[in-house]
Each structure stands twice: as C-alpha cells, then as structure tokens.
C-alpha cells in the first residue's frame, strides 16, 4: 500500500472515531475523544515503528482495538438512551417549533361542540362573572394591572388555564390576589375579601401563618441587636447546626438563601469531591430554576452533564451501576412519589381529564433499592428536600421513608418564614478544597448566607420542631387529611360529581373523572367561592398544621347545608348518567343540560364546605353564605 493509501486509511479511521464520539458522548466529547485519539496515535507509532508492522496490519489492529474498546462504551450509551426520560430528549426541540396560538372568542365558548345557544349562555355568564369580580376585587385588579406592566412574573403566573384559552380568559378574569394580611388559615386581600388558603405559599406554609408570625417576632427580638453585620457567626448559628445535624444525620451544614442555591451547592460539592462530571435526575422532577439542572421545560440551555432517567425503573438502576465511575450524584425529589415521571401538575396543562397524580405504590422500596445501588456504584445520593423537608415528617422524606441520603438539601419552611437554603452532608463530600492540590478550590459562598435575622427565625422554628407536641401534630394532621379526602370522595361519588381528591401526606390534588375541555375553569369558581389557590390551580393544594379537626361547628352541620338542592343535578345529564366524551360539566351533550341546573360554583362551594366541616377555621360563616344562591353566574347553562 502506498503513502496515499495509508493516509486514506488513517484519515478514514480518525473521521469515523470522531463521528462516533460526537454521537455517543454528548457533553464529554473533548475529554473522551482526546483520550481515545491520543491512545490510537500512540498505538500506531508503537506498531508501525517499534514492532515493524506494515501499514495495512497497523490500521487493522487499530480498528480492532478501537472496536473492542467501543463495545462496552456503546452498550452503556445505548442503555442510557433507553432509560432516559423521553421528554428530556424531545421537549427542547419541540418547543422551538410548536407555535403559540389562541382560539378566538366564538370558539372559546363552543370548542366542545356546543350549540350557538349554549355558547351564548356561556358568554353571558362569563361576562356576568367578570362584572362581579370588578365590583368584588377593584383594588386587587387595579394593583394587578399596574404591576403587570413592570413584573413579568405576574404576567406569567396569571396565565393559569390551558394555553389556547389564555387570550380570551385574560380579557375576562384576572385571578391574581393582592394580599393585605393573613388571619389563621385565611388570607385577606386589599378589598378585604377573606379567602380560605390552600395554596401553601409554594410549599413554605407547613406550620400555619400564625406560627410563622411567632417565629419572625422571636427571631427579630433575638437578632435586632446585631444589625446588618455579616461574616461572623454566633451561638444561634451553632445551635442551628447542632439541630440540623441531628435531623439530617450528617456531619456538616452549609447555609444559603434559597432552595435553588442549596441544590446548586449540593451538586457542586458532589462533583468537586468525587471528581466525576455527571449528575442523574429523574423524569419530571423539579430542582429549582437553575439551568444547570433543568432538563425539560423552561430551560434554553440543554445540560450536557445531566442524565435525566426514568423514575422507578430498573434500567435506570443499571445505568447508575454501569456508569458509576462517571456519575457524581443521583438527585431525588421525593415529591415525585405524587406524580411519578410527570412534571408538577397544574391547570395550565389540563386539556381534558389527563391529570394522573396520587401516591405511587412501592416508592419506599424504590428509594431503598436506589440507595443500595448508589452505595455499590460509589455514587452520592442527594435528597432534594426543599419542598418535602418538614412537610412529610419532622425529618422529611428521610424520616417518612426511613432512607438515609448522603447529602440533603432543605429550604422553604426551615427559615421560619424567611428565605433559606441549607445543605447537610458528610465532611468528605462537603469539602471546599483539595487536601492534595492547593489550586483546586470549590467556591460555594454567598453574601447573605448565615444572615443573623434568618438564623434567628430558623432557630425559633427548629426549637418548635423539637417539641413533643409538634411531633404528635404531624400524625394528627395526616389522619385528619386522610379522613377529609375519604369523606369528600364519598360525597362526590354519592352526588355523581366527576371530581375526586387524592393526597400524599398534606399535599393533595383534584382529579377529574370524565373527559372535558373546561376542567381548568374550576379554579376560577373556587376563587369565587372564597378559596385561594396558587398559580398551578387545582393541580397542587396544601394543608398546614394549622388545620385542626373540627369537633363541632356552629356554622356548618352538614355539607348539604351549604349548597342548594340543585347541586344534586350538577355535572349530570337528564338521564342522571354520563356518556363517553362528556364535557367538563359532565353533561354528555351541552344541549342535555337541564334548565336551572346547579353550576360549577356550587361544587366549588361544596368542596369548601367539606373542608370547613372537617377542619376548624374562620371560613365557616363565609361558606354558609356561598350556597344560598350567591352563585347565579353560570358558565354552563
């Protein structure tokens, strides 16, 4: 073979290897390709000059070595591909091509095939509800209108329905609430309307709003003498560390200012101290808005060093075991037990009765298997307990499921009402420097980390958490919520409502048992009924420890006292049954709706009444009024 033939062989070989690595190694192209090509070049020199092989033999041996070396490499990548959460591969590309669209107003009221007469009645009822809100919430609407000009957050979170309906819906109703104060389990807006709060303040409200007021007052009394002096720690911080070590079962503690920062720290220290590049997350899990950990919606960056795998999947365990030498950490958000392999539920994706949430059987066993796999593979297991910490159990998911993680992240309620992020882990994984290399430093710092006021409020919370009565209150709360869910579902089934409730500890959601295009509108009737929800609507609702079992209520004796007799025909056709393809009201056909049937507002009032019956709160009197003909604004005739 001539010189030209040899160059062609070598050139082909190098191009082939380059393409192979580009396809299979994703974000590790540089490191892996460099190692392989350098090894190939070295082998070529040894075989050609040292051992006297001719050109053809040298290229053949190089190809054989590369092929044999590529087999396990290729197997691991193919297995990873099969175990990968599908949306993490497709969503970013789909988001680039899927257009945004809004249906016009005529189609808005008839997208389920309703007749012109029914559509017109819907339009009239929507206008009536809109006028009612203008009178009921004038200050809130003015406040929201001005704020939307300056804050994109509010424009984003007020878009609460399925995207195609947003344009028309925002013309009629703005669900934003401008807060004046909290009173027990209620929130009071600028117009002095009191609403029963089940939003949970994005998961922060575990203890009850009145309790956080106590924490903040105690914290301020303790910290005000220090003023704004940062950079030095005190005895309060030392006490917090001791309590957090006991709760987490870990050696060290790191303080931050948000849950997202805590996750950033945990991932950073895991990578630094294991000297491995990859992190594993599971499908649908939320770990903060940082673009280094967000593999699906909301991220313009496609993380190259994050493997997003299927949750509760044996192939995922196999990937972790086979690629343990590359994986620094596996990140788990225990909240995924409630919506496995799905993004957090919200009304904005409620196109029909497509919400599938509820406790996943076998999740505890899965966490134990995952822990065993990580231990065998030498991979750090991180629990992101920013949301679940102190909500499920005084020790979070670690206590609820009896699983010890290697690193734990906390946030939200731990601050006693103030912003906080905390990471707890063993000394070897929390190190900020390399003991053998002076220039290897892991910067994880923050100006306001360990702020005196935050530390003092946290200390008040942690002391309260350690009280025997607090531990008992968790068990009581969970029992009360389970009883409420059971009673509500029984009532809904008896009355034929296409609504069911499901819960996981104090987290609960509303399910719709019949197909329909307007299920997302139920959140607006709940607001009208005096129930405050977060921007995800009926997807995720929360109770706090402030909700207590009602022994007797002078205001509500039975849920039936809250709504009129017409509620019994709501969401049912004239034959008192359903047909496949029923719309959101449950009517098999819009024309089959009985004249004068009760509306979704009555079911909203019924749901509120059931909550009031089960738990003592200040909303009893308000809820009684709701059923006495207050809701004559019907969306469906």
Backbone shape: globular
Please give the alpha-carbon distance between the first and last residues: 87 Å
Strand order of the largest sheet: 4-10-9-8-7-5-6
Number of helices: 21
CATH class group of the largest domain: Alpha Beta
Structural class: alpha/beta
Radius of gyration: 29 Å
Strand content: 5-15%
Kindly identify the CATH topology of the largest domain: Aspartate Aminotransferase, domain 1
Task: Note down, in words, how this protein is organized.
This is MycA protein. Its cofactor is pyridoxal 5'-phosphate. The chain crosses the membrane at residues 12-39. GO terms for molecular function: pyridoxal phosphate binding; transaminase activity. The chain has 637 residues and is of the alpha/beta class. It has three domains: 3-83, no CATH class; 105-206 and 471-626, Aspartate Aminotransferase, domain 1 (Alpha-Beta Complex); 209-466, Aspartate Aminotransferase, domain 2 (3-Layer(aba) Sandwich), CATH 3.40.640.10. It is built from 21 helices and 16 strands. Strands 4-10-9-8-7-5-6 form a seven-stranded mixed β-sheet, sandwiched between helices. A four-stranded mixed β-sheet has the order 1-2-3-13. The protein is globular, with a radius of gyration of 29 Å.
Compile the SSE list and pairings.
Blueprint: H1 3-24, H2 29-50, H3 55-83, H4 86-97, H5 105-108, H6 116-136, H7 138-148, H8 152-157, H9 166-172, E1 179-183, E2 186-189, E3 194-197, H10 209-223, H11 235-248, E4 252-256, H12 259-274, E5 278-282, E6 306-309, H13 314-322, E7 327-332, H14 363-377, E8 380-384, H15 396-401, E9 407-411, E10 421-425, H16 427-430, H17 452-465, H18 468-495, E11 499-504, E12 507-512, H19 522-528, E13 531-532, E14 541-542, E15 548-549, H20 600-614, E16 615-616, H21 620-626
Parallel strand pairs: 3-13, 5-6, 5-7, 7-8, 8-9
Antiparallel strand pairs: 1-2, 2-3, 4-10, 9-10, 11-12, 12-14, 15-16
Helix pairs in contact: 1-2, 1-3, 2-3, 3-13, 10-17, 11-17, 13-14, 18-20, 19-20, 20-21
């Amino acid at each position: 073979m001539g010189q030209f033939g040899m160059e062609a062989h070598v050139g082909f070989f190098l191009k082939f290897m380059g393409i192979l690595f580009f396809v299979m190694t994703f974000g590790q192209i540089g490191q892996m390709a460099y190692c392989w090509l350098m090894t190939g070049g070295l082998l070529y020199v040894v075989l050609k000059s040292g051992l006297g092989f001719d050109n053809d033999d040298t290229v053949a041996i190089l190809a054989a070595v590369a092929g044999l070396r590529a087999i396990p490499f290729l197997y691991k990548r193919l297995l990873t591909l099969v175990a990968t959460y599908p949306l993490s591969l497709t969503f970013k590309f789909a988001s680039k091509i899927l257009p945004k669209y809004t249906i016009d107003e005529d189609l808005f009221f008839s997208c389920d095939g309703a007749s012109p007469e029914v559509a017109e009645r819907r339009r009239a009822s929507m206008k009536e509800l809109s006028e009612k809100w203008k009178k009921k919430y004038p200050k809130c609407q003015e406040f929201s209108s001005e704020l939307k000009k300056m804050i994109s957050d509010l424009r984003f979170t007020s878009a609460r329905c399925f995207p195609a309906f947003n344009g028309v819906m925002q013309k009629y109703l703005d669900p934003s609430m401008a807060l004046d104060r909290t009173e027990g389990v209620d929130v009071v807006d600028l117009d002095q309307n009191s609403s029963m709060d089940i939003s949970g303040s994005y998961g922060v409200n575990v203890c009850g709003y009145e309790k956080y007021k106590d924490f903040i007052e105690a914290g301020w009394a303790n910290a005000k003498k220090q003023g704004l002096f940062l950079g030095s720690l005190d005895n309060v911080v030392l006490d917090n560390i001791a309590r957090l070590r006991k709760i987490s079962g870990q050696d060290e503690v790191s303080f931050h200012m948000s849950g997202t920062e805590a996750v950033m720290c945990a991932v950073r220290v895991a990578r630094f101290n294991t000297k491995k590049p990859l992190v594993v997350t599971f499908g649908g899990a939320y770990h903060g808005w940082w673009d280094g950990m967000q593999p699906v919606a909301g991220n313009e960056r496609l993380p190259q060093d994050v493997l997003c795998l299927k949750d509760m999947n044996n192939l995922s365990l196999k990937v972790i075991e086979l690629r343990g030498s590359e994986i620094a950490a596996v990140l788990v958000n225990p909240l995924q037990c409630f919506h496995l392999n799905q993004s957090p539920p919200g009304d904005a994706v409620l196109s029909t009765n497509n919400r599938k949430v509820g406790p996943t059987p076998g999740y505890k066993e899965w966490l134990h298997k995952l822990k065993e796999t990580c231990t065998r593979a030498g991979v750090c297991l991180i629990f992101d307990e920013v949301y679940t910490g102190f909500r499920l159990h005084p020790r979070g998911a670690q206590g609820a499921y009896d699983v010890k993680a290697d690193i734990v992240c906390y946030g939200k309620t731990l601050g006693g009402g103030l912003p906080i992020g905390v990471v707890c882990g063993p000394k070897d994984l929390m190190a900020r420097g390399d003991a053998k290399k002076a220039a290897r430093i892991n910067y994880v710092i923050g100006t306001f980390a360990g702020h005196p006021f935050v530390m003092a409020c946290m200390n008040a919370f942690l002391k309260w958490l350690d009280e025997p009565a607090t531990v008992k209150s968790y068990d009581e709360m969970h029992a009360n919520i389970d009883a409420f869910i059971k009673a509500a579902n029984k009532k809904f089934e008896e009355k034929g409502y296409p609504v069911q409730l499901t819960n996981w500890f104090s987290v609960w959601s509303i399910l719709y048992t019949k197909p329909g295009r307007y299920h997302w509108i139920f959140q607006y009737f709940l607001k009208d009924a005096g129930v405050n929800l977060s921007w995800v609507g009926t997807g995720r609702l929360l109770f706090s420890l402030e909700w207590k079992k009602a022994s007797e209520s002078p205001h509500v004796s039975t849920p039936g006292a809250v709504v009129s007799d017409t509620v019994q025909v709501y969401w049912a056709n004239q034959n008192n049954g359903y047909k496949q393809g029923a719309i959101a009201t449950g009517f098999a056909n819009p024309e089959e709706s009985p004249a004068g049937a009760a509306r979704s507002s009555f079911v909203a009032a019924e749901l509120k009444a059931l909550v009031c019956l089960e738990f003592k709160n200040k909303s009893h009197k308000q809820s009684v009024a709701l059923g006495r003909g207050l809701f004559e604004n019907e969306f469906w005739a």
